[in-house]
Write a structure and sequence with these properties.
By secondary structure, the chain is mainly alpha-helical. A two-stranded antiparallel ribbon has the order 1-2.
Length: about 140
């Protein structure tokens, strides 16, 4: 499983807890730390401890999660940006969009090269036509 897929799964897990938090006046199970979430979600994938910190830093730096303190325990919570981000497809969608953009850039470059060749052929044809007209005039 790629890191992007893991990030999306964490965001989806946090998203699924929103209804519970609303029902409980903003509180959730204090066991739901980032370590617990990662261990629960990625137990079968051979998740390593350093990955938890890496994923946590990524989500924090992207502004998708924040931490709230509940009884001296720091729990991750989705930000409004995080909610919108996961609703719009998350990291997987972002990766797909980047791949499509790269492909479009490559195609545009190919088309530009073809356009350059077509322009060159047009100029050569124009010069040949003008030369033919000039030759016929001076005969």
């Amino acid at each position: 499983m790629t890191h992007d897929e893991k990030l999306d799964r964490i965001l989806n897990a946090l998203m699924s807890r929103i209804s519970t938090r609303i029902k409980n006046n903003g509180e959730d199970d204090k066991r739901l730390t980032m370590d617990f979430i990662c261990n629960a979600l990625f137990q079968k994938e051979g998740h390593e401890n350093w990955e938890t910190e890496f994923l946590e830093r990524r989500l924090l730096s992207d502004g998708l999660i924040q931490y709230i303190e509940v009884e001296d325990v720091m729990l991750p919570e989705l930000t409004d940006l995080g909610i919108k981000y996961i609703q719009n497809g998350g990291y997987k969608r972002e990766r797909s969009n980047r791949d499509i953009e790269e492909e479009l850039k490559k195609e545009n470059l190919k088309n530009a090269k073809r356009s350059w060749i077509a322009l060159l052929i047009s100029i050569i044809s124009l010069v040949a036509a003008i030369a033919k007209i000039l030759i016929d005039c001076f005969r």
